């Protein structure tokens, strides 16, 4: 394998992991918002409670659509792992998911992140960038 192929593989994998993080993080606030009301479902026993909550979520499009996109991100992650370096996969997806969750939550009207959180997110981006560049 030539060095160009390695560089292209690392960059392509890193790009797909950013896409996965965006799919996961972008849908987290929507899933949270779509699941509101499930706490009001009350049944007499645990099995009926579980089934009623499942029914509530399954027939709630505000929950089901973001959940499906989120799970699509899991499929992309799984497929990308076949050709990617695990030392890149975990830091990119996990740390950037947090950043995308914070951004999308703010766009949806949740409390904006504090200054300290923003500094932390900037440091995360720097750290992930160093991980990616180390593999090139």
Keywords, separated by commas or semicolons:
136 residues; mainly alpha; 80% helix
Task: Explain how this protein is built.
There is one protein chain. The chain is mainly alpha-helical and 136 residues long. It has one domain. The protein contains 5 helices and no strands. Helix 1 runs parallel beside helix 4 (86-107). The two termini are 14 Å apart.
Explain the layout of strands and helices.
Elements: H1 3-34, H2 46-58, H3 61-81, H4 86-107, H5 115-135
Helix pairs in contact: 1-3, 1-4, 4-5
What is the beta-strand fraction? under 5%
- Number of strand elements: 0
Rough outline: globular
Tell me the number of helical segments per DSSP (H or I, 4 or more residues long): 5
State the major sheet.
Answer: none
In summary, what is this structure?
With 136 residues, the chain is mostly helical. The chain contains five helices and no strands.
């Amino acid at each position: 394998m030539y060095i160009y192929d390695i560089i292209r593989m690392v960059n392509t994998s890193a790009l797909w992991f950013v896409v996965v993080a965006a799919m996961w993080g972008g849908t987290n606030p929507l899933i949270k918002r779509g699941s509101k009301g499930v706490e009001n479902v009350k049944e007499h026993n645990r099995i009926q409670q579980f089934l009623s909550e499942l029914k509530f979520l399954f027939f709630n499009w505000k929950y089901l659509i973001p959940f499906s996109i989120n799970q699509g991100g899991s499929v992309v992650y799984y497929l990308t792992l076949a050709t990617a370096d695990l030392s890149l996969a975990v830091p990119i997806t996990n740390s950037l998911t947090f950043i995308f969750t914070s951004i999308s939550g703010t766009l949806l009207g949740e409390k904006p992140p504090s200054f300290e959180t923003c500094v932390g997110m900037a440091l995360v981006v720097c750290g992930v960038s160093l991980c990616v560049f180390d593999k090139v």
